[in-house]
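Lab meeting prep.
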Amino acid sequence: MSTSRYEDLSEEERKVYDAEEEAREKEEQAALPYKWTQDLQTVSVSIPLPKGTRARDLQVVLQKRKIKVQLKSASEPIIDGELFNDIAVDDSSWTIDDDIMSIELEKLSAHIKSHQWWPHVVTSAPKINTQKIQPENSKLSDLDGETRGMVEKMMFDNQQKAMGKPTSDELKKMEMLEKFKKAHPEMDFSNAKIG
């Protein structure tokens, strides 16, 4: 649903729509052969394995934009596809503990200070709504000042977009225009547009 159509819904209709979307998303994610979570730096994937599985029983491929995990004894991979975005291969890793394979994919975007939420691990999997992601406040306090500021700005902008209100950048532009108007009352701003 487009943002404008969502904005046309009443508060009660939005609640119903949001609940339906959340239920659909949970059902789609539950059907995947793995579970995953993320923060701004990493994507963590957990894959349940048959009892007694060891590293030598697996074929694992972690490349800049690809992931594949397959039991050597199986005809089909557990996960195989193009990653949503690039990873830092040398900083990514996997382990097996108690028949659970844990994969830590280091987002390359975190290395270049261009933090981004992933809507899915592989592009062939169903997407989650990244605008509904609310990082835990305790996790925010763990971030350095610059990163924390970026995350808080992203959260604010996502909330503003969801409500159909201006983002922080748009608010700055509006504020600058208002200051300019006050400094130049002789000018006509009736046709001024912010873009």
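Slide two material, second protein:
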Amino acid sequence: MASLGDSAYKLAKEAKRTSDLFVSPYNDELVQTICREIRLLHNKAKEVVNLMKSRGSTADPSSMSQVMLYHLAVKRNKRVLFAYHRQRINKLKEISWNVGLQSKFQREIKASLGPTEQKFLDEYADMVNTYKQSFIEIDLGGNGGAGLEPPVDLFIEVRVVKDAGEISTEYGVLNLSKGNQFYVRRTDVESLIKAGYLIHV
């Protein structure tokens, strides 16, 4: 029992140290060590309680202190585990909203995930994408989208990469033939940029 709570302390320090990273590798070894310690402490507390019951001395201060120590250590370990996993879940949610799973970081993200985190990320990303599909006309961010940040420029320069025919804007008709370049209002062409007909230059 010399190292009571040491693993939880290390995991808490690691969570704090890696809070600024994109996604830190899942520390399965420390998590498993803490889980084993929780089971061990729980079993020791049960043994002390059973011993107290068999003696008929439920008010023994020494035994009560022991049980309380085990209980508080288990509680602290669980809180550290919850905090560690909550931090990771929040990072994964942030990735789903801002970066998306089709990004250049996909391999790094997947290599850093724990046993059940990959499943969570896939299911959460599906929910986010389904939600975003309901608001196709609004850019909610992720996968190259600007998100809910206001645009810096009202007018942008675009180049046509796929023929799209003619479109009417408030400032006239644009002939979107491959290779043409225009200086247009951002809101007039945002959907065409998303669809891959134009690129922002």
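Talking points for slide two:
The mean pLDDT is 83.
Strands lie at 155-160, 165-169, 172-176, 181-185, 198-200.
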